[in-house]
Design goal:
Strand content: 25-35%
Number of helices: 2
Number of strands: 4
Number of domains: 1
Strand order of the largest sheet: 1-3
Shape: elongated
Largest sheet: 2 strands, antiparallel
Structural class: alpha+beta
Length: 79
């Protein structure tokens, strides 16, 4: 699940990691993201409390799984 508040993080959980964080980590460690696949899930995975918080804060909630496909850059050093 991802809640968007305009800054790509969970508004009520400061230590959350998002797909953007994974992309940044891959890029910094010598990988190039080539594809992002988004798979929607049932909305039943959200609790009523989570929906209420999103309604109060007027933010969009999406339910899904993401996968990043990456290719190692050619100029990356091998350890």
């Amino acid at each position: 699940m991802a809640w968007q508040d305009g800054q790509n993080h969970l508004p009520w959980q400061e230590k959350a990691i998002t797909i953007f964080d994974y992309h940044r980590i891959l890029s910094k460690t010598g990988w190039k993201v080539t594809h992002r696949i988004e798979c929607p899930l049932s909305s039943e995975r959200m609790s009523g409390n989570e929906v209420l918080k999103m309604q109060e804060k007027r933010i969009l909630g999406t339910v899904g799984r993401s996968i990043l496909i990456a290719k190692r850059n050619r100029h990356t050093f091998k350890l």
